Amino acid sequence: MTTTTQNPIWTDHRLPFENSAAAASGAAMLDAPFVRETDSRQAFNVTAHEWFAGGGRVPYDRRKKEILRSDDAAKRRDVVQVFRRIAKDAATDEDAVWTSFLPGWPDGSFGWAKVDQHLTGKTVGPKLFVEYIGHGDSDKPVDYSYGTIERANLVEAFWKAEGIKSTFIVGFDYSSIVALELLSRQQDLRDNGVEPTTRIEGVLLINGGLFVDAHSHPWFTTPVLKSPLGGLVTSLAQRSKFAFRELMKPLWSKDYEVTSEEINELYNAIARRNGVYALSKSAGFVDQHKRNSERWDLGRLFHASQAAVSFHIVGSEEDPFEGRQAEVARERLGAYGLDVRIVPGGHLATSEHPELLAEIIQEVEPQR
After folding, report:
1. Domain 9-364: what homologous superfamily?
2. pLDDT tens-digit profile of 46-85?
3. What is the pTM of this model?
4. Quick one: three-class SS letters along the chain?
């Protein structure tokens, strides 16, 4: 197994190399200045239709936790249709390290569209883009348990279906918690002398929950959506583009001028199959994190797994949802070698600075 080298690092992409605090601590800096000469939106754009046309829906048995091959199986009660997008060469080696892109809330796999364009032609190996139930082009059943455990089950089902033996996880938003559950499962197996069927070689967790005491979601965002009012709010946003825009507005930094085209494409991605309304059903991930605070704690997993797994954390400077997570990770684990980076912008770093995330992905992935 080949992993990236981990050094104590606190990288701040908010400023060029002259960042005094980082320089004083000896932190390494990437050549990633705050201001880009060309707005990435001008050169890189993909529609929701194009994104979903590049993948497909497959049947998933939520009771057996497996992707099915038979079309007849799709008629069974416990089977839902889930979207996934795969990019690989015909000659992909069976031992290749896949990059598993786990989606964020609320934009799902479509959130990776801009980042993926910046990775086109780069050496990143085969790519798997997962879409959870309740998002994007996946089904939104009314009787489904929308939770972290279920999401981790689906990811493992995709790994098994594709015969993936080794993977590097890139997780955004609440997929950071999913990644912590997947790491916990791997560590449980290894503690019992068993090697996992799919080895997690490393993780890059972006703007997601890492510690229970570091969540900072404003009361008018996900806390409202998981309340009895949540269904009313998302139902209105499903029907009204104006209400949808207002609901999404906190995702970007104040200085980022969101275009009407971006809002329309985000709506087209989320609203599929009544998806905006379904957002209220999947908004309870912070409460789930609190109920599993010890198991889903980055500190515990970092100390237990860092010899075999590379850990990389990215936070956004103006993220109102998980803005404290990267800072807390640095404070608690930086001295032990955790790689922590700060990028400019708001929560949707995948939208505001996809080029920075693409650069980081290429840097930290296992060597091929």
Report:
1. Alpha/Beta hydrolase fold, catalytic domain (3.40.50.1820)
2. 999 999 999 999 999 999 999 998 766 656 788 999 999 9
3. 0.86
4. CCCCCCCCEEEECCCCCCCHHHHHHCCCCCCCCCCCCCCHHHHCCCCHHHHHHCCEEEEEECCCCEECCCCHHHHCCCEEEEEEEEECCCCCCCCCEEEEEECECCCEHHHHHHHHHHHCCCCCCCEEEECCCCCCCCCCCCCCCCCHHHHHHHHHHHHHHHCCCEEEEEEECCHHHHHHHHHHHHHHHHHCCCCCCCEEEEEEEECCCCCHHHCCCCCCCHHHHCCCCHHHHHHHHHHCHHHHHHHHHHHCCCCCCCCHHHHHHHHHHHCHHHHHHHHHHHCCHHHHHHHCCCCCCHHHHHHHHCCCCEEEEEEECCCCCCCCHHHHHHHHHHHHCCEEEEECCCCCHHHHCHHHHHHHHHHHCCCC
